[in-house]
Amino acid sequence: MRFNHIDAFRAVMLSGSMTAAARELHTSQPNISRLIGQLEKETGLTLFQRMSGRLQATPEAHAFYRDVQRAYVGLNDLRKSAQSIRKLGTGHLRIGAVPSMALTVVPIVMRAFSTHYPDVRVSMHTSDSITVAQWTASRYCDIGIASYISDSPGVDAQRVRELDGVCVVPEAHRLARGTRALGPRDLHGEPFISLSYGDRRQTDRVFAQNGEDQRLLAYETQYAAAACKLVGLGMGVSIVNPVVARHYEQAGIAIRRFRPRIPFTTYLLYPLQSPSSELTRDFARRFVQHMHEAV
Question: Do 94 and 283 touch, CB atoms closer than 8 A?
């Protein structure tokens, strides 16, 4: 029993004739007659009889039709479900993000995303890059946003953008003036606000390579946003991702270029060998676009 058999039977029951059923299904009357004959043979039922030149459904046909209708109601529900999934994805998007992005770019992208998908629930979870990678690998999160990748099995990493770190200083600081790029020597004796984890390692490495690391390592935070806030309060200077610095430019900080370059990279992480939903792909597209427009 094939679906086109059931489709033809239902069309005949609804229209009352094989000719009308053929028009409804955009086929010929002989083809409808053939399909009904095949269905009767497979089921062992006599479904239609001609009485006084008119096609009449048998009691068996009416009984069978009730079950067919129940199946079509379920099929219609499946169509609606497919339409809903196509429009809204799975209905819930889970994002893992490092603090630097969670406090700056991600909320902006979430707002634009939610305008387009008002019925979708969005959850954002924040931690360091290693934890975000673990969340993504385990599918606890649909997509991850990380600052660095190490040995992270189970994830597929897409590099979104690599930017040169900038030096942020209090807006009234002596280093706030000028246009030249600052360097390690300019920060001699300055209280320095370090970032945690991978960002700190690469910054310390640059200062150590130049043999001019005379910073006062006064404070440390895992949040680039917090570092910018501390700088704005006059507590020291720092080197951060320029995207984050731009978001806190009104917090009493000045932004200066820094050389040698200290790269800040942003990655999108996906569960390995797992197809992304339409929601995930759309959020990723919006995030990438914003990152390329941010600086």
Answer: no
